[in-house]
Structures are given as structure tokens and as C-alpha cells.
Specification:
- By secondary structure, the chain is an alpha/beta fold.
- The longest helix is centred in the last third of the chain and has 26 residues, at about 230-255.
- Helix 5 crosses helix 6 (about 180-190) and helix 5 (about 165-175) runs parallel beside helix 7 (about 215-225).
- The chain is globular and about 60 Å long.
- It has twelve helices and ten strands.
- It folds into two domains: about 5-115 and about 300-345, ATPase, nucleotide binding domain (Nucleotidyltransferase, domain 5), CATH 3.30.420.40; about 130-290, Nucleotidyltransferase, domain 5, CATH 3.30.420.40.
- It binds 5'-O-[(R)-(carboxyoxy)(hydroxy)phosphoryl]adenosine and zinc ion.
């Protein structure tokens, strides 16, 4: 059975995970989030330097937790896109160095496929044909999946403008809440009234695409008008509008496509209210809901190791050591390998 070392550095988290046969053996995470807070968003150069400093300590900690040595590893999986170019490059450089030094194959993984694969660590193998709602800081997509390692990924819908996480981060800024906005809004909205303000639900009845920039502007206009409402009620009402659209479209996608399992993954899937509303709506529609625990929703290394584990089990050819960062890689397959001739040359 293969032991896979996974490395994730696409944004501000340095994540390392060790997975074997769908089981998480060890993991370590280091975040540079606090260093970006005063800029209100991730600064790529600061993130890249932080990855460089955190990489070896994280790898060491993950091995310690797993109780294995580097020589026990059978393969290295690494996020090669999408993400911040300089940040991706530090992870790729580390992964290539381990692959070369240990004489083991390298697997380039699509970051978002990693988010989906994370759920296997908690809930076991994926069903043959699930729908996945990916909600992160950079992406929001509704996907129809087959075998994650083998089949092309079908996009049912995507956001036309802001990603859901991006909307949380921007609205938090408008409301004077700290960065990252998602956890801040999640917290403050907990005891507030989600029905205080009927914010718009964009594109609710038109297909599976999403749009969140109008909602963000509606919150900004509401605040500019000198709202007398408490910040917590504005935050809760905004959050409810996002969640209402996400869960309605996700459930509809399952019903329309005769799919019985919905996965919700990515940073925003850590949101308490989203998990609650999704559970209620899936139960009412007879759909099995799978959402990984919050630590596996936000960026981490275990999810990349989990994706690598699936690729190896499916006999996917490894990537060449020339594997390049692809900052805007489209999500069409879990593995970010170049085409066949390049595989045979590696
Ligand atoms: O998947 P992720 O960790 O990184 C990307 O791949 O983008 O997602 C980060 C996003 C951020 O926008 C953050 O505000 C959001 O996920 N997020 C949340 C929560 N935790 C993180 N949004 C809502 N509620 C949360 N509890
Ligand atoms: Zn992510």
C-alpha cells in the first residue's frame, strides 16, 4: 500500500500531510494569515517567504506524527495549481527536492480536486457519481463527478464574478470585521438575526451559475445609507443570502441529475450555518450530505496527499520533474500532468 507525502502552498497555508490507503497518518499546518491581516488580503511575496520558512519544520512534524521516516514514503503529491505563482513554486520546489532525493514519483494535483479528496479521509471512498459544491476563497463551482482520479470533471455551474469566500472576505471588510472574513462573519452571525435584511439572492432561478458581487454591493449600499441595524444582523443576513443560494442550487443539481450524494468542500464549507442549512435541505430531499470536518475544509496538506493517494490507486502516470506551477489551472481533472508524450519522457 502506497504512503503519500502531500504538500500544499497555493495560498497562505503551508500544509503537509501523509496519507496511506485513504487514512491520514500525520499532518502539519503553518499559516501566514496573521502577517497578511493588516493588508486585508494575502500578499504573495510574504506568503512565499513564509512557506519557505515553514516547509521543513512542517514536513518534520508530519513525519513525527505519522511515526515513519522519509524513506518509507512511496510518492510525493503537490499542488501545482491554481494559486499564487510564487507560493505554488515554493511547494513545487520542495516536492521536487523530496522526490529527487528519495527517488520517488511526483504527482501534480489540482488544488480543488484536493479539496474534494479531503472528504475521503473522513467519510471513506467517494460514491461513483456525486455532485460536489466547491466553495473557497478563489472558486465557487457545482461539479458532477465520476471517478475523481480517472474521469473528466463536469462543471454544472461556476461563479460569474466573486467566489463565495471572496464575498465573505469583502463584506467583512465593509463591516469592519477582521481578515479572513469568513470565520469572523460565521462567529458574529451565530446569535444574530439572519432575516433582519432581505438581501438579494442572485440568479436563484437561472441555472447553476452563481453571482455574489451584487450582494456585496447591496451590503455596501446598506452600510453607506447609515444602517441602524447591528453589524451582527447585517453579517447574518448577508451570510444567509449566500447560503440560501448555494444550498438551493446544490440540492437542485442533485435532484436534476439523479444524484444521491452531495459533497460540500473548500474553506467556506467550514461555515457553521452552511453546514446546518445544507443538512436540513439535503435531509428533506433524501440526499446524503458529506462535509469534511472544518480543519479538512480549509487549505491543508492532507487533502493533497489524499488526492495523490487516489491518483496512485488509479495507476495515473506521475508528473515529470519539469512540472510547472499553473496559477490559473482550469479544473478539468484531478491530476495536473502534462500530456502523454511528456509522461513517457519523464
Ligand atoms: O479553501 P480555502 O482555505 O482557500 C482557498 O482555496 O481559497 O478557503 C478560504 C476561504 C476564505 O475566503 C475564508 O474567508 C473562507 O474560506 N472561510 C469561511 C470560513 N472559514 C474560512 N467562510 C465562511 N465561514 C467560515 N467559517
Ligand atoms: Zn483551497
Amino acid at each position: 500500500m502506497a504512503i503519500v507525502l502531500g504538500i500544499e502552498t497555493s495560498c497562505d497555508e503551508t500544509g503537509v500531510g501523509i496519507v496511506s490507503d485513504g487514512r491520514l497518518l500525520g499532518a502539519a499546518l503553518s499559516s501566514s494569515m496573521a502577517e497578511h491581516a493588516r493588508f486585508g488580503g494575502v500578499v504573495p511575496e510574504i506568503a512565499a517567504r513564509a512557506h519557505l520558512e515553514a516547509m521543513v519544520p512542517c514536513v518534520t512534524a508530519a513525519f513525527e506524527q505519522a511515526g515513519i521516516a522519509p524513506s518509507d514514503v512511496d510518492a510525493i503529491a503537490v499542488t501545482s495549481g491554481p494559486g499564487l505563482a510564487t507560493a505554488l513554486q515554493t511547494g513545487l520546489a520542495a516536492a521536487k527536492a523530496y522526490a529527487l532525493a528519495l527517488g520517488k514519483p511526483l504527482y501534480g494535483v489540482h488544488h480543488l480536486a484536493g479539496h474534494v479528496a479531503a472528504d475521503t479521509l473522513e467519510h471513506g471512498p467517494l460514491p461513483p457519481r456525486p455532485v460536489a459544491l466547491i466553495v473557497s476563497g478563489g472558486h465557487t463551482s457545482l461539479l458532477l463527478l465520476g471517478d475523481l482520479a480517472r474521469d473528466p470533471i463536469v462543471h454544472l455551474g461556476d461563479t460569474r464574478d466573486d467566489a463565495a469566500g471572496e464575498a465573505f472576505d469583502k463584506v467583512a471588510r465593509i463591516l469592519g470585521l477582521p481578515y479572513p472574513g469568513g470565520p469572523a462573519i460565521d462567529r458574529i452571525a451565530r446569535d444574530a438575526n439572519p432575516e433582519a435584511i432581505p438581501f438579494p439572492r442572485a440568479m436563484l432561478d437561472s441555472g447553476y451559475d452563481f453571482s455574489f458581487s451584487g450582494l456585496k454591493s447591496a451590503v455596501a449600499r446598506h452600510v453607506e445609507r447609515g444602517s441602524r441595524q447591528a453589524v451582527a444582523d447585517i453579517a447574518a443576513s448577508f451570510q444567509e443570502a449566500v447560503i440560501d443560494v448555494l444550498t438551493r442550487k446544490a440540492v437542485k443539481a442533485c435532484l436534476d441529475h439523479g444524484v444521491d450524494t452531495l459533497l460540500i468542500v473548500g474553506g467556506v464549507a467550514a461555515n457553521g450555518r452552511l453546514r446546518q442549512v445544507a443538512a436540513t435541505r439535503c435531509a428533506a430531499a433524501g440526499i446524503t450530505l458529506r462535509v469534511p470536518r472544518p480543519q479538512l475544509c480549509t487549505d491543508n496538506g492532507a487533502m493533497i496527499a489524499a488526492a495523490g493517494d487516489l491518483l496512485i490507486a488509479a495507476d495515473t502516470p506521475p508528473s515529470p520533474l519539469a512540472l510547472a506551477a499553473d496559477p490559473s489551472a482550469p479544473l478539468t481533472r484531478a491530476s495536473l500532468n502534462p500530456h502523454e508524450e511528456q509522461w513517457s519522457r519523464s
